[in-house]
Structure prediction request, 866 residues.
Amino acid sequence: MTSRLVPELLSPAGSLDAVRAAVANGANAVYLGAARFNARDDGAQLTLDELEAACQLAHARGVRVYLTFNVLIKPAELAEALAYLGDCIDRGIDAAIVQDVGVIRLIQRVYPELEIHGSTQMTVHDATGAAVLRDLGVDRVVLARENTLEDVRAIRAAVPDLGLETFVHGALCISYSGQCYMSGMISDRSANRGSCAQSCRKDYVLTDAATGQTLDAGYLISAKDLGAYDHLPGIAEAGVGCLKIEGRKKRPEYVATVTRAYRDFLDGVARGERAPIAAEDVQPLVQIFSRGFTGGMYGGRAGRDYITRTQPDNRGEELGTVLGADQGDLLVEVSSPIAEGDGLAFEPPTGTRGQTVGFAASSVRTLRERPGAVRQAIATRAFVPAGWRVVRSSHAALLQRARATYASLADQLRARKVRVDARVFGTAGAPLKVVLATADDSVAVRGEVPLAPATKRALDVQVLREHLGRLGDTPFALAGVDDSGLAAGLFLPLSELNRLRQEATEQLLVRRDWAREAALAERRARIEEAVGDVGAAQRDRSPGPPPDEHDGTTAATGPDHHDAAWIASTPHCGSESHGGVPFTLSAEVYTVDAAREAAEAGATEITFDPFLRHPAPPVARVRALADELAARGVGLRIRTPTIVRPGERRALDKWLALATPLLSGHVGLVAELSRAGRDVVADYAVNCFNQHTAAEYFTLGARRIVLSVELTAAEIAELTAPWQGAGFDVVVYGRPEGMTIEHCVLSAAFDRVPTTCRDLCVQKHATVELTDPAGYTFPVATDSACRNRLLHSRPIDASEYAPRLWRAGLRGYRLLFNVPGDPVVEVVRAFRDALDALSAGGPPELGRVRTALGSSFTRGHFARAV
Prediction:
């Protein structure tokens, strides 16, 4: 068989034992998080000392270490985050996995040698997004889990000089990573800040909003675990350079078992093997942790089988059934023998209801055994009805085997030592001079006792090495000893030699600490300069787009920023002015009728989303709407989908041909279309969380930026301060998209083939919603690509914050109307009157939106930080 190159195998580690497990079982690299600024906020971080130990252990065996630095960073956190990253670099990491675009640029300025990988949280899923990261100088990007092999090949062909990484095993987010705001919506735990509340793992009821009919119920957005073992040859051939195993919060035994399995699978790929993986080779993966496996979307959408439906957590391996009771024990017949210590679960038969029973087997008797069928009696006080299914959730023998693979690595850690070389000089009657030198420094000390002719044992290399090498707990280790400057046959009391060693060592330590503090001071200065210099993004890259035709103003900045001249001259930082109105009030709608209503009520701009729901209106009708609005002095802006996979670009291009201004949450489209001279506003899905990210998006060509919906009012003011608020929009009303899901809950409810069942969302059940156990209802929009967009359960109303935002210089306000029956006229009129009052210097009337909404609203994150 032909030997083939295989991708790097990247394993997770949430503890030092997990690092050992990954290294011992064949990982080429491990990824892990330190205590701060990573996307697992509890139970999966290493201390800095543990990080250093992990790097030492991994590097000793040729394994690389990648730090997860993959959260959005607030303005006030930037300096602290960069300093902490420096601490991690000092411990030996090889690369950082980063989500925040602004942080990428800052890392390049402060730590130019550090390798940077773009996180899957950046939602890169097509060639335009990959090109942005390549142009940013990122070395590798983790593609969206939703990409097919066809997508991957297209991205690789278009951007061949960017490394590609994909997930092959472990838990799946149901939403496109980076586009899940649902956790933050219902709590203060943002998925983009490492605090996901696992909203997708709840049970939901799917209902037709118009009729109230229940269409489905269960764990409807709880994805099965990814097990892409059968796709490995295709993934490797598509040009993926790294295969990633999910599971930083999993136990070390999981890391050992899954890493070993994929190491063996990849060794088969290297030998040219293409046959599906045998069931017995997959069984350890099922047993160690599994919600049930899906091959993911490498081969296309999986439909109903993509979801767990009946349970959200580890299920393990189904073994057999309960037969009844035998002398007080539970009698079972299973395909594989149960052993003491195994974790067991007993589930009701398929199609019936009942509370699962679970316990660890403490005593087991085997009554009869034949191939494929073992009858056993299990001691328990629990009652389990006959006919119930026996599931082994934890396999004691498998766990023991996994631990054995890395147990031998447990005691092999050693503190890193700095090489020190010694030279000695001296003649009879003169004191001994000792010079200790490291690669960076040296010290010289002289004795107080003169050298004398030796009567017994003279000083020689052996004696010098023995006593000068007693460096104990110091960070130094003696290497070379040069006695060429020492006359032969001389004697010195060993106590004096030891004293000289101690004095020289102490001086080396002091000088090392001085050098370290000087280096840290220099680093702090670099960080302060980089964070303060918001204009660096523009100076380092190509100029932005031409000035906004609606605006001739410029913005200044305060004395805290190093490049006021750049910020003041940034051509796209001003607010648009419509017909003399000094603000933009943009109403985002999806029907032509709503667009007319919003314009009539006072919107200065209509953002039209033709992709939100089936069916999209004819392009000609929207072209006529643009002309109609233009006659009224109201602009029309088309909102693109946030997700445009390679095969979907054609459907978008017919709308781009309208040549209207655009709103896009797709970073690749923002860059591409801005370069083409289009007027593009970057939507909130680009996750603009700090001023350096904003500067990068302006540099990419964005005319305005809609700020993240997870920022507080105070954080908004801080982020926009360098531009005095100009150039930014804020969502002040409506339901943001809480999740963007490739899976369709409506199609799955009827077990239809995805993308071939538009009769469901167009005719039979045009408006559906998901209700969680707490009673919150989330509207579901099925968009033109048959994706689900889960909307917030209640609209945000930030009318009370309008004066504060106005004082901060914000002049762009966005209203989202994406649910049938939204009070378009009332809300637009209320906000228009409030903004007119603020622009005239008078007090706005702020209660009218609340009057229209009653109690069905939320303040969002304006006062609730994530």
Q: What stands out?
A: The mean pLDDT is 91. The first helix runs from residue 16 to 24. The radius of gyration is 32 Å. The CA atoms of residues 204 and 712 lie 29 Å apart.
